[in-house]
Fold this sequence. Notes:
This protein has 127 residues and is mainly β. Helices cover 0% and strands 46% of the residues. It contains no helices and 11 strands. Strands 2, 4, 5, 6, 9, 10 and 11 form a 7-stranded mixed sheet that branches. The chain is globular and about 40 Å long.
Amino acid sequence: QVQLVESGGGYVQTGGSLGLACFASGRALSEYPIGWFRRPPGKKREFVSAISKSGMTTVYADSVKGRFTVSRDNTKNIVFLQMSNLKPEDTAVYYCAADDDLYCDDDVPDKDNFNSWGQGTQVTVSS
């Protein structure tokens, strides 16, 4: 099973930018579609974005569309989440997740299918 680790969280002011990265060990990240999720303080975990194995298909939650960009570099075994125009409501612990079911290279799983999770990284946006 793949082990995932997130990095890049931190503290930023409203309107600022941050980039998150998701790394894998145990298996090649290129074998998996990857999702990004977040858990705001006191709330349930919510879907943010997902990217297919090939990187050709991306999906975003409405709340981040136009501000966040997911991408991947399979040669370096890394998936990125670039976040811009951040808002206080983006404050959360951010997680990357993999789905180890079989998918075509350009398919993105349903958000409820992701089943391998990283430990998360904190993103705090001050007002």
